[in-house]
Amino acid sequence: MADYDAIVVGAGHNGLAAATTLAKNGLSVLCVEKTYGPGGQAATRELFEGFKHNVGAWALLVFRDEMIKLLGIEDYGLELIRPHSSYTVFGAPEDPCFLGYTDKEKLVEHLMQDHGPEAVEGLAGLADYMQTYRELIDKEIFKSPSSLEGLIANAPDAKTREILMKIVYGSAMDVIRQFFPDPNKHRCIQGSLCASAVDGTHTGPFTAGNALSMAYHYTMGDEYDFRTPKGGIGALSEVLAKSVEDRGGNIQYKARVKRFLIENGKILGVELKNGEKITAKVVLSGIDAHATFLGLVGEDHLPSDFVHRVKDIEYKTGYIQIHMTLSELPEFTGHLAFANDANLRWDMAYIPSPEHLTRCWQQYQRGQIPDDPVSYCGMPSVIDPSLAPEGKYTCTIFSPYFPYDIPKGKHKEYSHIMADRVIGQIAKYAPNFRDAIMDRVIVTQKYFENTFGLTEGDFASGLMHPGQMWDKRPVPGWGGYKTPIENLYMCGAACHPGPGVTCIPGYNGAREVLNTW
Question: Structure pTM?
Answer without folding.
Answer: 0.96
